[in-house]
Amino acid sequence: MSTNNSNSINPGFDVTKFQVGSFQSSSHQPLDTSVLATMASAYFPEFSKLETTSLPQSVEQPVQLRNEFSEAYFTNEIPTTLSSRPFSFLEEARSIFTEIENTVSNQSKSQSKKFGSGYKDVSFEAVSIPELDVYCNQFNVKTIREDFPILGEKVNGKNLIWFDNAATTHKPKSVIERLTHFYEHENSNIHRAAHTLAARATDAYESARDKVKTFLNASSSKEIVFVRGATEGINLVAQSWGKYNVQKDDEVIVSLLEHHANIVPWQMICSEIGAKLRVIPVDGTGQILLHEYEQLFNPKTKIVAVTHVSNALGTVTPVGEIVKIAHRHGAKVLIDGAQAVSHMKVDVQALDCDFYVFSGHKVFAPTGIGVLYGKTELLNAMHPYQGGGNMITDVTFEKTVYQAPPSRFEAGTGNIADAVGLSAAIDYVNSVGIENINKYEHSLLEYGMKALGRVPGLRLIGTAKEKAGVISFVIDGFTTEEIGNTLSREGIAVRSGHHCAQPILRRFGLEATIRPSLAFYNTYEEIDAMIAVLCKLKKSSLP
User: Fold this and answer.
1) pLDDT digit string (tens) for 152-204?
2) What is the pTM of this model?
3) Among 310, 336, 353, 363, which Cα is nearest to 217's?
4) Which of 112, 208, 386, 438 has a Cα-to-Cα distance from 241 of 20 to 30 A?
5) CA separation (Å) from 177 to 164, 203, 414, 430?
6) Are 400 and 392 in contact (CB under 8 A)?
7) Mind telling me the catalytic residues?
8) Are 326 and 354 in contact (CB under 8 A)?
């Protein structure tokens, strides 16, 4: 990324960075600028209202085109809300020329002259997307990509484009190297030995707990329990808190947006105890309806379990208000943060949530490690989730005395190395800056949403105002499996299916969607590559 104008958050529309490619025909005939006006009208509807008679009749050089066409109209005339976002003209230009060709074929030959000779053979250079001004000198997407070895992988002879970050994120070299160092120099079981390697491993493991405490802004490291992932964290709360605090005819509230991991454990508890599961509805954009949420409460409501960010739609839920409303009615709140922690700052004290869970592999750490945050008073009152070594202070055949949290909930040998890997992943995220990540990813998301929305027959699913990291869509005439396979052949990895969130997809009358999901190592060019494949797929279906 450019390091110029580092104090600017909004890059605006910089004509000097805007490359429209070589808008000349293969026969080197200059293009009539009415063609470019047509392109602009299609890409920016507001442009169609502008006068184009003052434009030069033909332009030989793209540089002159930028000066005389783009600067005057795109910078000065296009509304700020549009001009503040970079867009690639590559695929849009191709589709427009296709429309022109189809129009000309159905009209008189004389009418085709206004588009310039040779337009059918127009070729385009790859478009360079204007990059955002940096938010700090440390954030450079090109440098960041170099930190992730797998991004250099070839798939089907093509460069890997990883848009499956909601399923799992890739690991930077620093995390991989930290794991290697652990196994080469620190590997041991923890807590119960007097030798040096045990001390090293214990220090590394407990240091990771401290790191997570700071990452979430918990009040104490004792509020951080290591688990396998968000799913185990939710099950732990359901079994160790829910089973002892939810009684027959009591009620548990979840939202329609939930991953199955935040539905099924509560269903199991309700079925076992005889309690009732109630569901928060969402509107047509996929956002929670707060007014209807509050109407669900009654004296029997014991806990609300809700996602921070929807894994299927990317909706960022109003968790602050959700927590306040629940506490006002005397209920506890668990937040599933699996899709949030890699995209935004999470402060559990500011949220005042009672429990918060996330998975390490969603935040550039290894698989098999996750976190349950719980308020001290709640964890202290909870029963163990599993029995075994490490979670006890004394065992007789008559009675067992349990450790205090968090050890009480970490029976057996934990995933020591991957907890250390999680610590390294948090260090990496902190080195880039979560605020910088959030701003860059938000711009990518807006770009992707708007650009995908222009693909013929494509329907975006989940268009809430507040979103993070996830785009979900279907295309008329194609199954999600067909779309996913087509993208995969071009080296583009997306998720196809129900995303373990069937209830919310059925809210929109669907059983599956395509879900490209973003991380801070993705680029505008990768989004363009995906759109190019989708446009080609759509064109192949035309008679």
Assistant:
1) 999 999 999 999 999 999 999 999 999 999 999 999 999 878 899 999 999 99
2) 0.78
3) 353
4) 208
5) 23, 18, 20, 17
6) yes
7) 500
8) no
